[in-house]
Write a structure and sequence with these properties.
Elements (H helix, E strand, L loop, with lengths): L33 H4 L6 H18 L11 H14 L10 H28 L27 H4 L22 H8 L9 H7 L4 H9 L3 H8 L6 H22 L1
Helix pairs in contact: 2-3, 2-4, 8-10
Length: about 250
């Protein structure tokens, strides 16, 4: 991710600590904001343009649930190259550091919103999330992700908007969670530690798991509510497993 600046002056040097605040007008210490560090306090219009371009390019090329250092290399290079094409003066900054400062803010702000949302959901959910040990005896994990057996109830349902809709009023037992745990353990990288998080989202039995697999815009929804808990490889394994399950369910209905 390293890149040397073409032209260097004091304002273009990478600061020892990247700024967390963006706009000078909103800060009691404007010189320490990204706008101040970039030397753009007297040019707010151009700074707003920089922020707008970085936001659009980040949304297009980067993974918001990943910190700067965890961004996939190819995506980061595309982001930086497109940014320099749109704003050539960005290359004057050592290692294009304003881009890193903005993406760090963009990622942190996303994580804060998600954690706040999840926290509110916990307060409103009277059901206690289970621990892995409370689900029962360990279920042997297949060597690769396998389709789960369907139930007569799940086959009768069509695609749903939320995985909790079709089974919201159904009484729960610990045994209901076994198919969810089996699915998580069957992935190439077992992700059984996600069981409590899925429980809080409403994925508490086989029917809800099937509903999640068939859910429209599943990836976008899950990225918002659980993406920050996963590394990119874990995210891929989970989504590939749900895609395989969705395909199996589609074949069963046809």
């Amino acid at each position: 991710m390293g890149r040397k600046a073409k032209h260097r002056s004091g304002v273009h040097d990478r600061p020892r600590k990247l700024p967390y605040a963006l706009h000078a007008a909103n800060s009691s210490a404007p010189e320490g904001t990204l706008q101040g560090r970039m030397g753009l306090i007297d040019n707010p219009t151009f700074f707003k343009t920089c922020i707008s371009v970085m936001q659009k390019l980040a949304e297009k090329y980067l993974v918001r649930s990943c910190a700067v250092r965890a961004q996939p290399g190819v995506r980061w290079e595309k982001f930086i190259n497109k940014l320099i094409t749109a704003i050539p003066s960005m290359e004057d900054y050592e290692d294009v550091w304003p881009a890193k400062a903005y993406v760090a803010f963009w990622h942190h702000n996303y994580g804060t919103k998600i954690r706040s949302s999840v926290g509110r959901a916990k307060c409103g959910d009277t059901a206690q999330a289970p621990s892995i040990s409370s689900v029962g005896p360990a279920v042997p994990a297949p060597s690769t992700a396998q389709p789960l057996p369907s139930s007569s109830q799940s086959e009768s349902h069509t695609a749903i908007v939320s995985p909790t809709v079709s089974s919201a009023n159904k009484p729960r037992t610990i045994n209901d969670l076994q198919p969810v745990l089996l699915f998580l353990r069957s992935l190439p990288q077992p992700l059984e530690h996600l069981l409590p998080a899925l429980f809080r989202l409403g994925v508490r039995d086989l029917e809800a798991l099937h509903g999640l697999a068939r859910m429209p815009h599943r990836r976008e929804w899950m990225d918002r509510v659980i993406g920050h808990k996963l590394m990119p490889l874990q995210w891929k394994h989970l989504q590939d497993g749900l895609d395989a399950l969705e395909l199996t369910l589609a074949h069963q209905r046809s």
